[in-house]
Amino acid sequence: MEETSGYLRIGELSRRSGVSTELLRAWERRYGLLLPTRSEGGFRLYSPQDERRVAVMRDHLERGLSAAQAARMTLDEADRRPDDAPALARGADGLREALNGLDETAAQVAIDRLLSNLSLETVLGDVILPYLRELGDRWERGEASVADEHFASNILRGRLLGLARGWDQGAGPRALLACAPGEQHDLALIVFGLALRERGWRITFLGPDTPLDSLADAARTLEPAAIVIAASAPERLAGTESALGKVARIGPLWLAGSGVSSKAVKKTGAQHLDADPLQAADLVAQAQHR
Question: Cβ atoms within 10 A of the Cβ of 280, count?
Answer without folding.
Answer: 23
